[in-house]
Amino acid sequence: MNAKLQAISARLDTLLEGIDFTLQEHVGELTLVLPRADMLPVLKRLRDDYDLRFEQLIDVCGVDYQSYGDGAWSGKRFAAVYHLLSVSKNQRLRVRVFAEDDDFPIVDSVIELWPAANWFEREAFDLFGLIFEGHPDLRRILTDYGFVGHPFRKDFPLTGYVEMRYDPDQKRVVYQPVSIEEREIVPRTIREGSFNG
Asked: Would you call 48 helix, strand, or coil by DSSP?
Protein backbone atom coordinates (compact mmCIF):
# COMPACT_ATOMS: atom_id res chain seq x y z
CA MET A 1 0.00 0.00 0.00
CA ASN A 2 1.47 3.36 -1.00
CA ALA A 3 1.82 6.34 1.36
CA LYS A 4 -1.34 8.11 0.12
CA LEU A 5 -3.50 5.02 0.67
CA GLN A 6 -1.94 4.48 4.10
CA ALA A 7 -2.80 8.06 5.05
CA ILE A 8 -6.42 7.61 3.91
CA SER A 9 -6.63 4.28 5.74
CA ALA A 10 -5.26 5.78 8.98
CA ARG A 11 -7.67 8.72 8.76
CA LEU A 12 -10.62 6.35 8.16
CA ASP A 13 -9.63 4.27 11.20
CA THR A 14 -9.72 7.41 13.34
CA LEU A 15 -12.81 8.97 11.76
CA LEU A 16 -14.92 5.80 11.83
CA GLU A 17 -14.00 4.55 15.28
CA GLY A 18 -16.89 2.53 16.75
CA ILE A 19 -18.44 1.82 13.34
CA ASP A 20 -18.43 -1.68 11.87
CA PHE A 21 -16.59 -1.36 8.54
CA THR A 22 -13.99 -3.14 6.46
CA LEU A 23 -11.34 -1.54 4.30
CA GLN A 24 -9.93 -3.48 1.36
CA GLU A 25 -6.96 -2.55 -0.81
CA HIS A 26 -6.67 -4.10 -4.25
CA VAL A 27 -4.50 -3.00 -7.20
CA GLY A 28 -3.82 0.37 -5.65
CA GLU A 29 -7.45 1.25 -4.82
CA LEU A 30 -9.29 1.36 -1.50
CA THR A 31 -12.80 0.02 -0.97
CA LEU A 32 -14.70 0.86 2.20
CA VAL A 33 -17.51 -1.60 2.97
CA LEU A 34 -20.23 -0.21 5.25
CA PRO A 35 -23.47 -1.48 6.75
CA ARG A 36 -26.58 0.32 5.53
CA ALA A 37 -27.41 1.62 9.02
CA ASP A 38 -24.21 3.70 9.09
CA MET A 39 -23.92 4.70 5.45
CA LEU A 40 -25.39 8.23 5.47
CA PRO A 41 -23.51 9.56 8.54
CA VAL A 42 -20.26 8.00 7.30
CA LEU A 43 -20.66 9.36 3.76
CA LYS A 44 -21.35 12.81 5.23
CA ARG A 45 -18.13 12.55 7.26
CA LEU A 46 -16.20 11.48 4.16
CA ARG A 47 -17.48 14.54 2.32
CA ASP A 48 -16.98 17.06 5.13
CA ASP A 49 -13.78 15.88 6.83
CA TYR A 50 -10.91 18.29 6.12
CA ASP A 51 -8.31 15.55 5.65
CA LEU A 52 -10.46 13.52 3.23
CA ARG A 53 -12.83 15.97 1.48
CA PHE A 54 -14.53 13.56 -0.92
CA GLU A 55 -16.65 16.40 -2.28
CA GLN A 56 -17.49 14.82 -5.62
CA LEU A 57 -19.55 11.74 -6.38
CA ILE A 58 -18.28 10.22 -9.63
CA ASP A 59 -20.68 7.30 -9.98
CA VAL A 60 -23.17 5.02 -8.25
CA CYS A 61 -23.34 1.44 -9.52
CA GLY A 62 -25.60 -1.45 -8.70
CA VAL A 63 -23.96 -4.86 -8.36
CA ASP A 64 -25.52 -8.34 -8.32
CA TYR A 65 -23.19 -10.79 -6.57
CA GLN A 66 -25.38 -13.84 -7.18
CA SER A 67 -22.74 -15.73 -9.14
CA TYR A 68 -19.70 -13.61 -8.33
CA GLY A 69 -16.27 -15.06 -8.96
CA ASP A 70 -16.33 -18.84 -8.99
CA GLY A 71 -20.02 -18.91 -8.02
CA ALA A 72 -19.39 -19.60 -4.34
CA TRP A 73 -20.45 -16.15 -3.09
CA SER A 74 -22.04 -16.48 0.35
CA GLY A 75 -22.72 -12.86 1.29
CA LYS A 76 -25.59 -10.50 0.50
CA ARG A 77 -26.63 -10.46 -3.14
CA PHE A 78 -27.08 -6.75 -4.01
CA ALA A 79 -24.89 -3.75 -3.29
CA ALA A 80 -24.70 -0.10 -4.21
CA VAL A 81 -21.15 1.04 -4.95
CA TYR A 82 -20.21 4.72 -4.69
CA HIS A 83 -17.09 6.13 -6.37
CA LEU A 84 -15.90 9.25 -4.58
CA LEU A 85 -13.30 11.80 -5.62
CA SER A 86 -11.50 14.46 -3.65
CA VAL A 87 -10.51 17.08 -6.20
CA SER A 88 -8.67 19.17 -3.61
CA LYS A 89 -6.68 16.18 -2.26
CA ASN A 90 -6.43 14.24 -5.56
CA GLN A 91 -7.59 10.98 -4.02
CA ARG A 92 -10.32 8.42 -4.67
CA LEU A 93 -12.35 6.01 -2.58
CA ARG A 94 -14.88 3.32 -3.42
CA VAL A 95 -17.67 2.73 -0.88
CA ARG A 96 -19.78 -0.45 -1.01
CA VAL A 97 -23.07 -0.81 0.86
CA PHE A 98 -24.94 -4.12 0.78
CA ALA A 99 -28.75 -4.27 0.87
CA GLU A 100 -29.92 -6.36 3.82
CA ASP A 101 -32.78 -8.13 2.04
CA ASP A 102 -32.04 -9.98 -1.21
CA ASP A 103 -35.75 -10.19 -2.13
CA PHE A 104 -36.39 -6.46 -1.69
CA PRO A 105 -33.00 -4.68 -1.78
CA ILE A 106 -33.08 -1.25 -0.13
CA VAL A 107 -30.29 1.26 0.53
CA ASP A 108 -30.52 4.94 1.38
CA SER A 109 -30.42 7.68 -1.23
CA VAL A 110 -27.42 10.03 -1.12
CA ILE A 111 -29.05 12.84 -3.11
CA GLU A 112 -29.00 15.13 -0.06
CA LEU A 113 -25.20 14.75 0.08
CA TRP A 114 -24.47 14.69 -3.65
CA PRO A 115 -27.31 15.82 -5.98
CA ALA A 116 -25.47 14.16 -8.89
CA ALA A 117 -26.63 10.80 -7.50
CA ASN A 118 -30.14 11.35 -8.90
CA TRP A 119 -29.72 9.72 -12.31
CA PHE A 120 -27.20 7.15 -11.09
CA GLU A 121 -29.64 5.87 -8.46
CA ARG A 122 -32.46 5.77 -10.99
CA GLU A 123 -30.26 3.71 -13.32
CA ALA A 124 -29.36 1.22 -10.55
CA PHE A 125 -33.07 0.99 -9.66
CA ASP A 126 -34.06 0.36 -13.26
CA LEU A 127 -31.37 -2.17 -14.14
CA PHE A 128 -30.84 -3.98 -10.81
CA GLY A 129 -34.02 -3.31 -8.82
CA LEU A 130 -32.21 -1.50 -5.98
CA ILE A 131 -34.61 0.70 -4.02
CA PHE A 132 -33.06 3.99 -2.86
CA GLU A 133 -35.05 5.09 0.17
CA GLY A 134 -35.53 8.84 0.22
CA HIS A 135 -35.07 9.33 -3.53
CA PRO A 136 -37.53 12.05 -4.67
CA ASP A 137 -38.25 10.58 -8.13
CA LEU A 138 -37.37 6.88 -8.26
CA ARG A 139 -38.67 5.66 -11.62
CA ARG A 140 -37.31 3.87 -14.65
CA ILE A 141 -34.77 5.72 -16.73
CA LEU A 142 -33.59 3.30 -19.47
CA THR A 143 -36.32 0.71 -19.89
CA ASP A 144 -39.97 1.23 -20.75
CA TYR A 145 -42.33 2.09 -17.87
CA GLY A 146 -44.26 -1.14 -18.46
CA PHE A 147 -41.10 -3.26 -18.48
CA VAL A 148 -41.26 -6.24 -16.13
CA GLY A 149 -38.08 -7.13 -14.26
CA HIS A 150 -34.59 -5.71 -14.04
CA PRO A 151 -32.32 -6.66 -16.97
CA PHE A 152 -28.93 -6.60 -15.19
CA ARG A 153 -29.93 -9.10 -12.51
CA LYS A 154 -28.07 -12.33 -13.06
CA ASP A 155 -31.29 -14.36 -12.96
CA PHE A 156 -32.96 -12.32 -15.73
CA PRO A 157 -33.37 -14.39 -18.94
CA LEU A 158 -31.06 -13.38 -21.79
CA THR A 159 -33.95 -12.88 -24.21
CA GLY A 160 -36.29 -11.21 -21.72
CA TYR A 161 -39.94 -12.06 -21.21
CA VAL A 162 -41.70 -9.93 -23.81
CA GLU A 163 -40.87 -7.96 -26.91
CA MET A 164 -42.56 -4.85 -28.23
CA ARG A 165 -43.35 -3.75 -31.73
CA TYR A 166 -45.48 -1.15 -33.43
CA ASP A 167 -48.77 -2.58 -34.71
CA PRO A 168 -50.00 -0.53 -37.71
CA ASP A 169 -53.54 -1.95 -37.39
CA GLN A 170 -53.91 -0.86 -33.76
CA LYS A 171 -51.72 2.23 -34.34
CA ARG A 172 -49.82 1.68 -31.10
CA VAL A 173 -46.97 -0.23 -29.53
CA VAL A 174 -47.97 -3.74 -28.41
CA TYR A 175 -46.24 -6.29 -26.20
CA GLN A 176 -46.12 -9.95 -27.11
CA PRO A 177 -44.20 -13.02 -25.85
CA VAL A 178 -40.62 -13.28 -27.05
CA SER A 179 -40.47 -14.95 -30.45
CA ILE A 180 -36.70 -15.44 -30.64
CA GLU A 181 -35.73 -19.03 -31.33
CA GLU A 182 -32.70 -20.16 -29.39
CA ARG A 183 -29.95 -21.37 -31.66
CA GLU A 184 -26.39 -22.43 -31.31
CA ILE A 185 -24.01 -19.98 -32.89
CA VAL A 186 -20.91 -21.65 -34.27
CA PRO A 187 -18.36 -19.54 -36.09
CA ARG A 188 -17.93 -20.54 -39.70
CA THR A 189 -14.52 -20.51 -41.32
CA ILE A 190 -14.43 -19.27 -44.90
CA ARG A 191 -11.30 -20.12 -46.86
CA GLU A 192 -10.16 -18.85 -50.18
CA GLY A 193 -9.58 -21.47 -52.85
CA SER A 194 -5.84 -20.96 -52.94
CA PHE A 195 -3.37 -18.97 -50.91
CA ASN A 196 -0.45 -19.68 -53.19
CA GLY A 197 0.53 -16.32 -54.50
From this structure: helix
